[in-house]
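[Automated response] Your request has been received and processed.

Submitted sequence:
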Amino acid sequence: MPVFEPGKDPGSDFPMLLQRSGYGPVNLPAGSMIDSPHATTCVAVRFDNGVVMAGDRRATSGHLISHRTMEKVVQADRHSGVAIAGAAGPAIDMIKLFQVQLEYYEKVQGSALSLEGKANQLASMVRANIPAAMQGMGVVPIFAGYDVRRSVGRLWAYDMLGGRYEERDHVATGSGSLHASTVVKVGYRANLSRNEAIDLVARSLWEAADADSATGGPDMVRGIFPVVATIDSDGWSLVSDDELETRYRALIEQIGGAAS
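Generated structure:
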């Protein structure tokens, strides 16, 4: 860690620590463009004891599938998570930096940042990415978590300019978000159980993959399934691939039965 003179110590301000240590965002020359892999569709839904987050695994470069097993839903700390859509490289770096920032704050202050404070910090990081966004490397995350002070799950959506918007019940982002959010709107009701919420986000990603080429559906042959996680009073918990495979096979049977 760097050493600072008296009066110049950034304290718990992690972005200021990076700035005074000589680290900062990469500014590309005007007019330059980078054809980087992009991540797509993610959703988050509130249920009776928290939130469930889900994202497909496909990353695309134009019409090319550049990666089939990308993890777009990532744990931020014990009671929060981030789902990403947009340029994959900057998004992954942003999440890693966000994780370190939350850990740094907790170690310096002796307590975790409030859930709303975490949402604000992520907004400032998205805002700092505006120069890269202007070059085609925008990042549009979803932030969700369990608010231990209010004992309730909460959701936030963002735009590429760093605007943050708290959503009441559900949110979606990415190229397949229109299709995914439509499924969630139709199927959502107050006080969903954990199982009902997982089934709802699984169905929403299925329909998004069916209509959007940049969104990857469950791959039964390769054993690739969306990343789905729940966050409640007990903290972050990933839904296993075995459980998701069972749910998707039941969904396929349901869709096949309805078609016949």
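Summary generated for your ticket: The chain has one domain: 37-259. The mean pLDDT is 88.
If you did not submit this request, please reply to this message.
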